[in-house]
Amino acid sequence: MRSLSSPCATVVIPTLHAGPPLAECLRSLEGQTRTDFEIVVVDNSGTGLVRKHGVPAGVRVMENANNKGYGGAINQAAAESTAAYVAALNDDAVVSEGWLAALVAAMERDAKAGMCASRVILADRGVLDSAGMLLCPDGSSKQRGHLRQPDEFGTAEEVFFPSGSAALYRRELFTETGGFDEDFFLYCEDTDLGLRARWAGWKCLYVPEAVVFHHYSKSAGRVSPMKAFYVERNRLYVLRKNFPPRMWRRAWFASMARYFWHARFLGRPSAAGDFLREGNTFWTAVGLLLRAWGAYWKERAALDRKRAATMQAARITAEEFEQYCRRFAISPKEVAAL
C-alpha cells in the first residue's frame, strides 16, 4: 500500500485501548489518495493490546511497558522516522481519503508553515470539533469553531496552532523545538508545542479539505476527574512556559474570571455542569483545582528554565507573540461555556 523505504510522512497513532475504534482509523488510512507514508501505532497500554487485536500488514507497532502519554508516544515514533512530515492522529479518528494529501500539499506551498490543522468533525453529531485552536489569556486553549457547522469553516487560512487530534508537523519544527513536552503527559501538549513553534517563527495553516471525523474524548471521557486535573495543571504549565512575564498579571485575572464563569454555568450544558452531572461533586472539583495548582507550584523553577530556552531561540518578539494571542483569542466566558 505504501512505499516504506522513503516515506513522505509518518502517521503516528498513540493508543491505550486498541479495538474497533483503532481498526476503523487504520481502515481509513488504507484508503488515502497519497500512498507514500508509513503508519506507526504506539501501544501505551503496557499489555500488548494492539498485538492481541492485530493490525493490517505494513503497519508498524511500537509497544511500551507503560503509558508514555500522548506527546511521548508521538516523540518516540518521530525519533525513529526519517520522513519530512510527522502526523499526529487520535486512535478514535477517521480520516477522509484526501486527508494526508491535502495537508502535505498545503505545507509544500508555504515554506514558513510548520504545522497544519485539519477540519475535525464530531462523528456522532455532525458539527465541528475544531478548525485550529484558540488561546485564552489564562493559558487555556479551545477548539476554533467548536460545535458550529463545518461549512462555516471552509476557507483555508492561517490559524494559531492545530489540535493534536489530527495535525501535521514539519520535521524541522520537531528538531528545533524538541517535539512535545512529555512532562504534560496528557492534554495541552499540542498547545505548548504550537506556542513554542510560534516563538521559533513557524506558522500554522488550516486546511479545510483535510476532513477528519472524531469520536471526542472516547478514551478519557469528556469531563473525567483525570482529565480535569491534567487540563488545569497543564494550562498553568503552558502559561508559565510560553507567556512573557508582562502577560502574567492579565492571565491571573483571566483565571479568576474563568472560574467565576464555570461556577455560573454549573446548571447548564458546559464542562463544569457536565462534571457534576456525571456524579462528581463541587468539592471534588475544588480538590482537583488545588492539586493542579500545587503541582504547578512545585514545577515553577523547571518551567522557568524551559521558558528561558524557548526565549533564547525565539525568532519573534514578545510584542509579536502578544499580537498572535490577541488575533486568535477566546474569552474566559467562552471557554467556560463550552
Summarize the structure in words:
This protein has helices at 19-30, 49-53, 69-79, 99-109, 171-177, 189-199, 225-242, 248-264, 271-277, 282-298, 300-312, 318-327, 332-337; strands at 9-15, 37-43, 60-63, 85-89, 93-95, 113-122, 128-130, 133-135, 141-143, 157-159, 166-170, 203-214. The chain starts with 8 loop residues before the first strand and ends with a helix. Helix 7 packs parallel to helix 10. Strand 8 and strand 9 form a beta hairpin. The protein has 338 residues and is α/β, with parallel strands linked by helices. The protein folds into two domains: 9-214, Spore Coat Polysaccharide Biosynthesis Protein SpsA, Chain A; 225-337, no CATH class. The mean pLDDT is 93. Strands 1, 2, 3, 4, 5, 6, 7, 10, 11 and 12 form a ten-stranded mixed sheet that branches. The protein has a two-stranded antiparallel ribbon with strand order 8-9. Helices cover 43% and strands 19% of the residues. 43% of the residues are buried.
